[in-house]
Amino acid sequence: MKPGARRAGRSILLATTLTCLVFVVSLGGCATVKPWEKEAFARPDMTWDPDPLGAALESHIRFSKEGALPSRGGGGGGCGCN
After folding, report:
1. Which of 21, 23, 40, 64 could form a disulfide linkage to 80, CB 3.0–4.6 angstroms apart?
2. Is residue 46 part of a domain?
3. CA angle 41, 44, 46 (to 5 degrees)
4. Which position has the higher pLDDT, 54 or 64?
């Protein structure tokens, strides 16, 4: 066998082994959450915005000053009159 063919065979074997290893490791992340275990995810401190009033105020300030409204679409001027 030529040295180049042996090197190509090793690289294919390495790529296949790494692909299988990544696949097997990623299977550990698949889990079913029971309904009684979901209460931990429903806590107020687990939300994206633990302070909804503060998040709404921050969004309004950004909209008024920058004309930027995150994830709600639309635009506006800097005067806050929109």
Report:
1. 64
2. yes
3. 45
4. 54
Task: Report the distance separating Cα 6 and Cα 34, nearest Å.
Answer: 50
- ∠ CA(48), CA(75), CA(73), 5° rounding? 45
Overall number of domains in the chain: 1
pTM: 0.33
Find where tokens 């040295």 sit: 3
At 68, is the pLDDT very low, low, confident or very high (cuts 50, 70, 90)?
low
Q: What is the DSSP letter of 13?
A: H
Q: Let me know if residue 34 belongs to a domain.
A: no
One-letter amino acid for residue 26 of the chain: S
pLDDT value, residue 16: 93
What tokens were used for 72?
Answer: 């709600």
Measure CA 63 to chain center: 25
Structure tokens at 63: 């909209």
Between 77 and 33, residue with greater pLDDT: 33
